From TrEMBL:
<dbReference type="GO" id="GO:0006388">
    <property type="term" value="P:tRNA splicing, via endonucleolytic cleavage and ligation"/>
</dbReference>
<feature type="compositionally biased region" description="Basic and acidic residues">
    <location>
        <begin position="201"/>
        <end position="211"/>
    </location>
</feature>
<dbReference type="GO" id="GO:0005634">
    <property type="term" value="C:nucleus"/>
</dbReference>
<dbReference type="GO" id="GO:0003972">
    <property type="term" value="F:RNA ligase (ATP) activity"/>
</dbReference>
<feature type="domain" description="tRNA ligase kinase">
    <location>
        <begin position="1"/>
        <end position="143"/>
    </location>
</feature>
<dbReference type="Pfam" id="PF08303">
    <property type="entry name" value="tRNA_lig_kinase"/>
</dbReference>
<dbReference type="InterPro" id="IPR027417">
    <property type="entry name" value="P-loop_NTPase"/>
</dbReference>
<dbReference type="InterPro" id="IPR015966">
    <property type="entry name" value="tRNA_lig_kin_fungi"/>
</dbReference>
<dbReference type="GO" id="GO:0005524">
    <property type="term" value="F:ATP binding"/>
</dbReference>
<protein>
    <recommendedName>
        <fullName>tRNA ligase kinase domain-containing protein</fullName>
    </recommendedName>
</protein>
<feature type="compositionally biased region" description="Polar residues">
    <location>
        <begin position="214"/>
        <end position="226"/>
    </location>
</feature>
<feature type="region of interest" description="Disordered">
    <location>
        <begin position="201"/>
        <end position="226"/>
    </location>
</feature>
Amino acid sequence: MPVSVIGCGKSSLFRALKSLYPQFAHIESDRSANKRDFYKSLKDAFKDHSVVLADRNNHMKQHRREIFELFEEDFVNILVVNFVDPSVDKETVKNTAFKRIKARGKNHPTIDGHDTRKVKMILGKFMKDFTPFDIDEATTSNHVCELDLDMTEGLLPTTMEMLSCLHEHLFLEIPDEKEVFRTLMSGMEYRVPNKEKKFLQLKGKSQDSHKNIRQGSSKRQNNRSG
């Protein structure tokens, strides 16, 4: 379970893990219709997979509590991955995330990186709402452990740290750094299909609404002229 903000690299890291370990399940919140659908997908994934990557930021206590409660009776081991190092000042985290979001542009299911105003607004909200994880939050029967990463370090070192953690807990073989690098580079070439970009769908609906308003206005003017 990540504890992060947008632009921290969690989805890129998880895609790499899924590529390196095909037996993992990768469930993305951004591709879910809603929260209920996301939680259902997480539960269902454990029917066929022993490891499930829950790709959501979980930057608020409420989000984490819901995950803990979701698996309270399933005795699932939960690894909390802290992407935001508390020793790094917030402006550095914010600037790093902003640059990454801008760099990926429209290659994302929900955020248009070219819309600077929108990016600043969304990122600012995430930073404002972000609450670091406290182990006391884990009050359920699940076994919970933590991994601290620094999202400002770059994707390769954070991925290698994640792999070391998985090796420690799951005894998985760790690929060499060159293979991990190639996997990350391959993942960077992935392009989100336009039909899955929710911001394009919203933009289309907005344009249709404006068109209908203009057409309605023109009809009223014509009626008055007649």
